[in-house]
Hints:
Layout: E1 8-11, H1 26-38, E2 43-44, H2 58-72, E3 79-82, H3 87-99, E4 104-107, H4 117-130, E5 135-139, H5 141-144, H6 150-159, E6 163-168, H7 173-182, E7 189-191, H8 197-202, E8 207-210, H9 218-228, H10 232-251, H11 254-264, H12 281-295
Parallel strand pairs: 1-2, 1-8, 3-4, 4-5, 5-6, 6-7, 7-8
Amino acid sequence: MSKNLFKGIISYPITPFLTGDGGVDIKTLEQLIDRLIQDGSHAIAPLGSTGESAYLNDEEWNAVAEASVKQVAKRVPTVVGISDLTTQNAVRRAKFAEKVGADAVMVLPISYWKLTEREIFQHYATISEAISIPVMLYNNPATSGLDLSPELIVRIIKEIDNVTMVKESSGDIQRMHRITQLSNAEIPFYNGSNPLALEAFAAGAVGWCTAAPNLIPAWPLRLYEASLAGDLKQAREVFYKQLPLLQFILKGGLPTTIKAGLQLRGFDAGVPRKPLLPLDSAGQNELAALIKQLDG
């Protein structure tokens, strides 16, 4: 396994919750991770937006991180999501992820006060100095409240040794081209915007971070394999077939739609944690139809 480069389909598991007390359902999480690996995922990324990381307390977060790494058991890489308002707690979580055996951490800076570039840079520098495993810089302005420019992203990766790769989720394909241009194509980048998957692979993305394999595991793999083989016709065909579902799960909110889709697949992963609500009946019917089209 490369120290600082993961390739292919990096899948996000949801975090299942128990009925009754609403605590984390570790057994179901373990089963879901096994499904994702058996279905061909190239890496597992727990505790991202899909995993409702923002809605977990520290004890729950620790439990999910440790259980996920243990269940993956080095069959594929594990990239643990790190996000917190404070650098102090982000460092704590990054250290914990390293301690339990994560292969890398994916760091999303989040903000109440709008952070300056100097503050963002120092946030990454402090986390990186605290651990020895690679750091994936994660830019997702829709959830973090911060939008990191390509220039800042490249500077962070060039100047902070342990930050070695970037996941771009702004939804702007030009960002990916700009990162490639600024870095002379030396920085591995990963697509984090489902509707841009085809364009991202064409732009040189080495991987796709996505929740879609929870519901349609074969389709993201087909896109990656066709792109890797340079078969643009096949890549277009498999992408546009899955695009309506990719758009639906993104628009409807990943924890909500993925948990509803798993239920439709016969896998009970519970419901999202409030204030998120389960998908309504109209949404369930639309999601069922989209899945059926891809199963046919």
